Amino acid sequence: MLSPLEVVQRQFDAYNRRNLDDFLANFHEDVKVFRPPSPDPAIVGKCQLADFYASERFNRPALKAELISRTVLGNKVFDHERIWGVRETAFEMMAVFEVQDGAIRTIWGFSAE
């Protein structure tokens, strides 16, 4: 079984290749994506995740994520990233990935905007 770090790195690499199948292979069927401060998940389940990334991310030719820093704490991986191709200018975010049984189960995405 892959470590949390390896799982997150695989999804990061697939994201930058805009490869939806390879990307989704790293997520649990019941994945939840939160965008604080909302307490409710923005995305629930791998099907919703696939729909969102197919229609809102991987269709953008300039999409790219740069890893600024990464910290691993047990089964959680904290990525400080700079994202291009979604907005007019690049923006920074902190993505927190919780990995269980070799798959990403929960993501919290924090951005300044």
TrEMBL record:
InterPro entries: NTF2-like_dom_sf, SnoaL-like, UCP030561. Residues 8-105 form the SnoaL-like domain. SUPFAM superfamilies: NTF2-like. Coiled coil: none annotated. Gene3D superfamilies: 3.10.450.50. This is Nuclear transport factor 2 family protein. It comes from Pendulispora rubella. The lineage of its organism: Bacteria, Pseudomonadati, Myxococcota, Myxococcia, Myxococcales.
